[in-house]
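Here is a typical protein record:
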Amino acid sequence: MLATEQIQGIKKEFSFKTSRSGGKGGQNVNKVETKVELSFSIEESKVLNDVQKQQLLEKLQSKITDSGLLKVVEEKHRSQLENKLEVIEKCINIINKALHIPKKRKATKPSKASKQKRIEGKKKRGEIKKHRRKLY
């Protein structure tokens, strides 16, 4: 997870490119550049440390281009500003998710009570099935 200071620093390293969006919208789509494409170079980042960079490069391998850029695109909204805010949030979520380290699972054994309860349930189910049989 990124600290608040890191998020502010990373936002300064983002570069944006706008283009015309596809889909519905009539004239607005044809003349206004609302689609926003965010580019972020993980390797050239001054905010991330080497461990974080390595972790991001490994986990986001499929989302990183050959030139080493993480690209995120947004064209959902009709406003360029809304799309820009959305793409920033999306990118930070992707980075945070990639940096998240899940806790190791501790192996546990079932308790005596849970084993007993399981056996009783099986016996009860067996009794129900036993009573279904036809007697000849």
Remarks:
- The chain has a mean pLDDT of 90.
- The chain has five helices and three strands.
- Helices lie at 4-13, 27-31, 50-59, 80-99, 112-132.
- The radius of gyration is 27 Å.
